[in-house]
Design goal:
The protein is of the alpha/beta class. About 55% of the residues lie in helices and about 15% in strands. The protein has a five-stranded parallel beta sheet with strand order 2-3-1-4-5, sandwiched between helices. The protein binds adenosine-5'-diphosphate and shikimate-3-phosphate (S3P). It is found in: Cytoplasm.
Amino acid sequence: MKSNIVLIGFMGVGKGRTARALAEKTGMFAVDCDDLIESFSNMKVREIFSEFGEPRFRELEQQVAVWLQKQVRNTIISTGGGFFNVPNIRKIGKVVYLHADFNQILETIYAHPNAKKKIKKRPLLNDLAKARTLHESRLPLYRNVADIEIQVGGKTVEQISNAIIKKARLK
Ligand SMILES: Nc1ncnc2c1ncn2[C@@H]1O[C@H](COP(=O)(O)OP(=O)(O)O)[C@@H](O)[C@H]1O
Ligand SMILES: O=C(O)C1=C[C@@H](OP(=O)(O)O)[C@@H](O)[C@H](O)C1
């Protein structure tokens, strides 16, 4: 049985979008950690942050991580931008880091017709100066846990998913 693929990377880099494209191409199923947290808690991510604070959200991420490791196989898992920090990340599956420069990420988010909504639902993107620093400080940490790194800047989702299939030997 194939192991899971765990997509990590900064907010808005395209983890969810890539997971869906990969699922379509490989026949594997795709799940998203933020979606799992929202359905489990019956709250939106932004509500969890505003009502209970970031530490509660990180606890929920750890619960999801334990469940994924125990129960989920043969699945493409897209994660939130801070999920890579869970202690068992490398036990969940093959970790694929999607990398783009901060400016490229902002460009793709702002190019979207729903840009305002996309920013609102990501509390850590609301202050752009802080988000830029976060991107910089996380870069070595993402690289440290990743098995594979994919450059996504300027690429189509088709090119990105084909690169992952090749590097992770998914087909
Ligand atoms: N390579 C890309 N080219 C064009 N648009 C992209 C690209 N990557 C992401 N997007 C768009 O940016 C937004 C964030 O993508 P998403 O998959 O939700 O990111 P993440 O799951 O990493 O936060 C979406 O609207 C998506 O369609
Ligand atoms: O980078 C982060 O710490 C976060 C990223 C978000 O997910 P996306 O990467 O899907 O935006 C979401 O999990 C939460 O707002 C925290």
